[in-house]
Design brief:
By secondary structure, the chain is mainly beta. It is built from no helices and 9 strands.
Length: about 110
């Protein structure tokens, strides 16, 4: 039987130590160089530009963030190919973002 996880409940959240203080995440999938997390950005969030060795997809579920001077409200989607620099990211009021990293190559 597959594990069922509620995206909006208060269990399975962890401090996201590799992110700015106050950021938490819930790991939904972590296997074979692929990872899916629900990421809670706190009010006043700021993260410098960065890259990844995998493709990254962002789905903004609640709140909004700004990246590269563009605001991404709830319902927004972005995809970054491996090696693409993206950011900086900021969020004045916080956000809930579904983030998917896959070893998929997109041109």
């Amino acid at each position: 039987m597959k594990k069922i996880m509620n995206l909006f409940d208060d269990i399975h959240w962890e401090e996201a130590e590799e992110y700015p203080k106050g950021t938490t995440y819930k790991v939904l999938r972590d296997q074979n160089n692929a990872k899916t997390v629900l990421l809670k950005l706190p009010e006043g969030f700021h993260m410098a530009p960065h890259t990844h060795i995998t493709t990254e997809q962002n789905f903004v579920l609640k709140g909004e963030y700004t990246s590269g001077g563009v605001k991404y409200p709830a319902g927004s989607y972005q995809i970054f190919s491996s090696g693409d620099e993206h950011g900086p990211f900021t969020s004045e009021g916080g956000a809930l973002v579904l983030v998917v990293w896959d070893p998929l190559i997109i041109n």
